[in-house]
Amino acid sequence: MEFIDLKAQYRALQPAIDAGIRKVLESTRFIGGGEVKELEERLALFVGRKHCVSCANGTEALQLAFMAYGIEAGDAVFCPDMTFISSVEPAVMLGAKPVFCDIDPDTYNLDPVSLEKQIEAVEREGKYRPRFVVAVDFLGNPADFDAISSICRAHGLVLIEDAAQGTGASRNGRKCGSFGDIATTSFFPSKPLGCYGDGGAVFTDDDEIAGLLNSFKVHGKGPKGKYDNVRIGLNSRLDTIQAAVLLAKLEVLEQEIVTRQAVAKRYDEAFRGQIQIPLVAPGSISAYAQYCVLAESPEQRRRVLDAMKAAEVPSLIYYPNVLHALDAFAPYEGDRALPNAKHYADCNFGMPFSPYLTEADQQKVIDTVLSAL
Ligand SMILES: *Cc1c(COP(=O)(O)O)cnc(C)c1O
After folding, report:
1. Which residue among 19, 308, 319, 352 is least enclosed by CB atoms within 10 Å?
2. Which residues span the domain enclosing 363?
3. pTM of this prediction?
């Protein structure tokens, strides 16, 4: 059994993917081929944004977003304490101060109450300039954008939606990638929309920001082309083969999201009342990048994971650490009493999940987990 069954997905889509890759091989337009533009146009339409700017990976998508909004040393960037390091790593590399916030205990997403408390603490202290909030669609579950957007407006902060895990998800009819001032995503193979290597994209409705992103991603190119460098940038392009793979997968994304709901529902029904299942708010559709539950204690988690291992059922702790406890962030002081994020880190585990998980395999996962509980 695969944890995320990319092999079954490839078998299902092989004719389209192979044909797409072969076309790129024959054209030899490995960088900047027509597939890249086509993908950007189709993704912008899919998500409901004016612009999609593709790039090399989801981390650089965030870096480009911070750069386009002119991040500076001494800026404070607020993000959940439970996410992948990329949500804030590029900002810290550019001299910003990370400020970690707690998560909601049921949705595992950025808690607006903790966010506002942290913003007010930084404002009171006056040492750093509050600038950015990164709200993550954690595990594919859309963040609470109504509450978070109004906090950002009230405090004059730029809201970045980190939709790396949320491609295809939606909230009240709006697709993830359309929230905040700017949004980013990743096409890392295991994400809900993954390519066959690294890839990423930035979404914006702002023409000027889109222009800056397109410049920054190609060495700060100016109006006269890539040797007319008007600012310091990076080399962060999505290559054409990856765009071809993504075009084939985009065709089935909507259907895969529907299937993901059915798989999640079977887990929900089996586990409800036995162990804490992920809460998806009314009006939200999760992309279920991962299906993670919370044991009641680290010991109980250990017992279940041992049983899964013995039964050869793959599992994953996603993620095992809160960000603020990582050595990389040791130099940054701040409020570290963030109990919900800590509890999640100590007790979460994910189980096999993909639109290609068979009911027989899923039943085996369910039986193994329930009997260990
Ligand atoms: C995967 C991920 C990223 C980074 O994407 P890469 O393509 O691996 O650089 C950023 N944020 C979150 C929440 C992610 O899950």
Report:
1. 19
2. 253-372
3. 0.98
